[in-house]
């Protein structure tokens, strides 16, 4: 008997009432439970694949972290991720998740998240939405290849977007583009 069971604690009721958005995903990647705080942040998503709630640029990382927990190579994940609410709006969040184990076997993932306290700046007015998305990925240290894979674009298309966003920002390197974006965030 676990220590919680010995106390007679109703953990599910406590998790439902806690103000921290919490969720459970089964071993197949389907969201099986969310508490009321999570439903307020992202809407009703029980029964959906967890990747449908993750912004395209973060799907690959989310899949890798989930798979690592399911096969037992990753015990916990703490990451910044961009979620999508039920209307498709972006929700920047800090997420922490762990493998759920029963009888020595991983049966799913439990996690909690909170909105990122640093708000994402509005996209630069000279950039297209895709260029702004690629600039955000560059800010997170992604390579051209990683961006191409995450956004399902060719390498050449990503290179073109990067060239055009640098021209639109009036900079000569990716580093300058990222520095300018961060400077504008601080100034705003």
What's this model, at a glance?
The chain is of the alpha+beta class and 188 residues long. It is built from 8 helices and 5 strands, in the order H-H-E-E-H-H-E-E-E-H-H-H-H. A 5-stranded antiparallel β-sheet has the order 2-1-5-4-3, with helices on one face.
Q: How many DSSP H or I helices? A: 8
User: How many strands, which pairing sense, and closed or not: the largest β-sheet?
Assistant: 5 strands, antiparallel
Backbone shape: elongated
Give helix % range: 40-55%
Q: State the distance separating the first and last CA atoms.
A: 54 Å
What Rg, in angstroms, do the CA atoms define?
19 Å
Average of pLDDT: 87
Explain how this protein is built.
With 188 residues, the protein is α+β, with helices and mostly antiparallel strands. The radius of gyration is 19 Å and the shape is elongated. The mean pLDDT is 87.
Map the helices and strands:
Layout: H1 3-7, H2 11-17, E1 22-26, E2 31-34, H3 36-42, H4 59-71, E3 76-84, E4 90-102, E5 105-115, H5 129-139, H6 144-151, H7 155-169, H8 174-187
Antiparallel strand pairs: 1-2, 1-5, 3-4, 4-5
């Amino acid at each position: 008997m676990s220590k919680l069971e010995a106390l007679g604690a109703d953990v599910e009721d406590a998790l439902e009432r806690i103000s921290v958005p919490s969720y459970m995903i089964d071993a197949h990647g389907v969201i099986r439970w969310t508490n009321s705080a999570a439903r307020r942040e992202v809407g009703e998503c029980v029964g959906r694949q967890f990747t449908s709630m993750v912004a395209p640029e973060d799907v690959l990382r989310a899949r890798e972290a989930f798979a690592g927990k399911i096969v037992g190579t990753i015990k916990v994940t703490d990451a910044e991720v961009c979620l999508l609410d039920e209307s498709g709006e972006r929700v920047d969040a800090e997420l922490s998740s762990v493998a759920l184990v029963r009888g020595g076997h991983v049966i799913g993932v439990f996690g909690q998240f909170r909105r990122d306290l640093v708000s994402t700046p509005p996209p630069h007015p000279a950039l297209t939405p895709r260029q702004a998305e690629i600039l955000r990925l560059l800010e997170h240290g992604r390579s051209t290849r990683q961006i191409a894979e995450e956004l399902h674009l060719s390498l050449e298309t990503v290179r073109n977007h990067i060239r055009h966003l640098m021209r639109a920002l009036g900079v000569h390197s990716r580093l300058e583009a990222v520095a300018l974006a961060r400077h504008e965030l601080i100034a705003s």
